[in-house]
Write a structure and sequence with these properties.
The complex is a heterodimer of chains A (149) and B (102). Chain A has 149 residues and is of the alpha+beta class. Chain A is 36% helix and 26% strand. Chain A is globular and about 40 Å long. Chain A starts with a strand and ends with a helix. Chain B is α/β, with parallel strands linked by helices. Chain B has a single domain, classed as STAS domain (Transcription Regulator spoIIAA). Chain B is built from three helices and six strands, in the order ββαββαβαβ. In chain B, β2, α1 and β3 form a beta-alpha-beta unit. In chain B, α1 runs parallel beside α2. Chain B is globular. The chains are: A alpha+beta (149), B alpha/beta (102). The interface between A and B is medium-sized, with 25 and 20 residues.
Chain lengths: 149, 102
Amino acid sequence: MENQMTVIFDAVTENEAFARNTVAAFCVALDPTVDQINDIKTAVSEAVTNCIVHAYPDKSQKGKITITTTISDNSVHIVISDTGIGIEDVDSAMQPFFTTKPEQERSGMGFTVMESFTDSLTVEQNKPTGTVVSMTKTIRGADWKKKKH
Amino acid sequence: MTIEHYKKADTLHIKLCGELDEHHSAYVRTTIDMLTDGDTFKRVYIDMSDLDFMDSTGIGVLIGRYKRLKPRGIPIFIQSPRPTVDKVLKLSGIYEIMTKAG
């Protein structure tokens, strides 16, 4: 069975903890391990931080971040999107240590962490503007299937 | 996010408690700089045993502190990170410039 939830919130740092904890709480239905929950929290935090830091440079206008989380039998699919300025060169942005803001002590590890902490990651342009980050993580492994059947 | 600290012999101990993300990064950055600027010690231990969460923002903060302390010849040691935090630290390659102690 599929189960889905969507949250839309302001792109401000105050909402980072809310975002990762909300997605994590929704995933609890899949009975993940503590490590898996922490992986999800970290990956979501990276994506949300990117939206806050990069997507909306005009701070006088409040941008929005949308997260849709879908859980199915054995996996969680998380789509995090913004309607900001978008990423000029996605391939470069995904390289480890690549950052457009080195003066702000940015590590440039955001996408690398998302990639490592989930099973698949795609980064696409949002229409008409912005970025869509999609991540999938398998929660119930082979052991669980064995137990179930 | 709270930061505890004490100095023992030639070592400055800094303990990070809570969740280190973009929202708390400025506070962590300025607090560590305040503790390290103008004081004399030979090494800094950053205790992460009560750090519940850290994303790559924390890596940026650590690298920034490393760059400030390296010219003074002061090494940074990372103490007792939790598994998920340790995973981010390992992935970033930070252990090539900071030693994990415990």
